Amino acid sequence: MHKMTGRPVDDTQSILSNVREIACDFASQRSERQRRRELIKEDFDRLRESGYLLVAVPTEFGGI
Description:
By secondary structure, this protein is mostly helical. The chain has helices at residues 12-28, 30-36, 41-50, 52-55.
């Protein structure tokens, strides 16, 4: 269980696999978002929930 998310910690490969899917979704909406100059909170939430943001954080600071 990860102390910051309250859910089981996925392995890095699983997280990266999920992020590939998320990245494809982001890419399909990129031109419209660039045109509007938008950053979507839900996109950041989705990355956080996937565990991706923890990959770059050292384990001693709560990363994986």
